[in-house]
């Protein structure tokens, strides 16, 4: 790690990290989007004017502000403005709808809610009104602005909880994960170090900035002083022009992202898809070994895959310096300061990048063992040289395109269908998405045939987000069960329908 990044890495808060980088390289670009470019100095100054506008509206240190915004320069400015004020921010993925958003607003007790208005055909402002959200304001193009001279001093403590990120688990409702500036800085700095990024790189953010990966990526930009291209909506082949125009050197996302780029490359063999690209990196979903080899062979760049979760965004990461065997068959190594313990096959974690717990104290008590290690619910083993190999999951979630989907949430809704007697939802392997959602149902006596379009239409009427909808429907006479509690044996369903 270079001296500048090392010095910045000791910063106690995200705002201090922003200020120091702006002092070091004020004129260097940091955010590139369409024909717009924002420098580090403009990022700092713009965030302060937005912070002043928010302060005039009543946002204070500790005020809870939820925001559901796409990946835009304005979103980063708003988020940094909240960091400057010391507010508690609760990012919400843009494609969540009434069901999830109502829960987030209620559980976080949000005082304000920033929305994009009508975005991609959906009226977020109207949804906010339906849900009775407080302090609703639009923040797509125009942001509240004011005179920074009215601002109180920035927060000096980086260990207070100022982030509530949301993840799905084994229950139907999302879980509010509590992070501090320091925990997110720890994750972002370790990610940059593992990937061996430099000030000469040009990155990209092609995923929702509301993901915990959004702020972690920003930490990388601030520490190493390089820019990133932002994509409000990522789609191929349309996005390729922006990658080429800006000379992107490192890109990433989930397994689905790698597969999409690979498919485009196969449409034009022999001609580099993105000539400047040297590294793909990401995580969030299983990555088959054969996909690693295909990317290296056909895209002509390295692929470093990692393991993270909302509770600990950077657990292990492959590095360009690892061997091809490690890069293809493991999730990389943990950074300094991340302890991994394998207990009864389960991966457990302790370190600065691990969250403080959950909004629900009962979930926090359940998640950490007596030594303070986070129970991940993932199964794995460590190789003799310290690389992590994941072998499965204890918790019943489906990871589709890097998004955690609660099987129980879908099951609960399916059980309300008049034709369904029993339902079980499992994830099936998918080479592009990582996993796809499969609903297995037992029909009620005398019920007529049930089709997948009918099921998805029913679930959409019940408010289920589009990315959680089943992509496959199977009807069985009975679900396999076992044990004294007659639990559904989901592994048998996975084996049968994979």
From TrEMBL:
Residues 19-359 form the AMP-dependent synthetase/ligase domain. InterPro entries: AMP-bd_C (IPR025110), AMP-bd_C_sf (IPR045851), AMP-dep_synth/lig_dom (IPR000873), ANL_N_sf (IPR042099). One of its GO terms (biological process) is fatty acid metabolic process. Belongs to the ATP-dependent AMP-binding enzyme family. It holds the Pfam family AMP-binding_C. One of its GO terms (molecular function) is medium-chain fatty acid-CoA ligase activity. Residues 409-482 form the AMP-binding enzyme C-terminal domain. Keywords: Ligase. This is Cyclohexanecarboxylate-CoA ligase. The lineage of its organism: Bacteria, Bacillati, Actinomycetota, Actinomycetes, Kitasatosporales. PANTHER family: ACYL-COA SYNTHETASE, MEDIUM-CHAIN ACYL-COA LIGASE ACSF2, MITOCHONDRIAL. It comes from Streptomyces inusitatus.
